[in-house]
């Protein structure tokens, strides 16, 4: 799995506010990432000279130096949360960059979990309790994880239909999307052919790019994720070996057991 252990951000601000007053903010940008969350109501946003009507339940991500502007239309109101942070480092991405091509994020299946954490964050920011800053950091980190889990539902920055020779940035974008997809969907029946089709490249081309950047093929990387996750689950004696196999993407427990022994040199039962 992708190691996000070093990806805990420094929180610059958590700013919930309710706006009933029509008006337009200055067109501005930051030298750090910002997340804007529409909790209730609506507002219009100008982002890099494109215009969006943002409604309840939508989330915006502004990478550093992304110009944006908010307008509260007449007769409307909005309840939003703005979060500024820095020193957030992702494998294969770098510091203070989230790998989304668009600032408007589709949370997909992460929607409910994400907004449950938003509710906790709003409650925590409204009080001066012991450990407030530490808890805010934990909650914002959790929101970032849910955003990354939603990455397969969104286009990756610099991702495009590739033809001919692609640039290093394009190659990295393809591999990055594949990495985050595999980490999010390892428990499912993952097909290299379907993943490559979703990324608009051939299976052979994806395997070649992936091995160049990561050092192993997508299939080997997926097996690595599954085996390490299985090793974490097996000590839980409330799960059968068959159930563990199913949770890491294998419908055949016998095949899973053979693969586990080949990978670790011991059987799944010896891991318990």
TrEMBL record:
GO terms for molecular function: DNA-binding transcription factor activity; sequence-specific DNA binding. Pfam families: AraC_binding, HTH_18. Keywords: DNA-binding, Transcription, Transcription regulation. Residues 176-272 form the HTH araC/xylS-type domain. It comes from the Bacteria. This is HTH araC/xylS-type domain-containing protein. It comes from Schleiferilactobacillus perolens DSM 12744.
């Amino acid at each position: 799995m992708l190691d996000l252990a070093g990806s805990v951000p420094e929180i610059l601000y958590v700013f919930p506010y309710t706006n009933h007053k029509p008006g337009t903010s200055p067109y501005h940008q930051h030298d750090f990432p910002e997340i804007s969350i529409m909790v209730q109501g609506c507002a219009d946003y100008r982002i890099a000279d494109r215009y969006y009507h943002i409604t309840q339940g939508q989330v915006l991500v502004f990478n550093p130096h992304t110009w944006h502007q908010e307008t509260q239309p007449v007769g409307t109101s909005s309840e939003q949360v703005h979060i500024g942070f820095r020193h957030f480092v992702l494998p294969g991405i770098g510091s203070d960059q989230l790998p989304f091509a668009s600032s408007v994020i589709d949370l997909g299946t992460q929607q409910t979990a994400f907004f449950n954490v938003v509710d906790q964050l709003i409650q925590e920011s409204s009080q001066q309790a012991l450990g407030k800053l530490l808890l805010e950091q934990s909650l914002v980190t959790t929101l970032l994880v849910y955003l990354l889990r939603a990455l397969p539902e969104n286009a990756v920055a610099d991702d495009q239909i590739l033809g001919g020779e692609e640039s290093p940035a394009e190659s990295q974008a393809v591999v990055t999307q594949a990495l985050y997809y595999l980490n999010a969907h390892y428990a499912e029946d993952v097909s290299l052919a379907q993943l490559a089709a979703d990324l608009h490249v051939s299976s052979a081309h994806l395997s070649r790019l992936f091995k160049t950047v990561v050092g192993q093929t997508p299939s080997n990387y997926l097996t690595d994720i599954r085996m390490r996750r299985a090793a974490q689950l097996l000590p839980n004696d409330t799960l059968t070996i068959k159930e563990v196999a199913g949770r890491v993407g294998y419908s055949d427990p016998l095949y899973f057991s053979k693969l586990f022994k080949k990978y670790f040199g011991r059987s799944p039962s010896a891991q318990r």
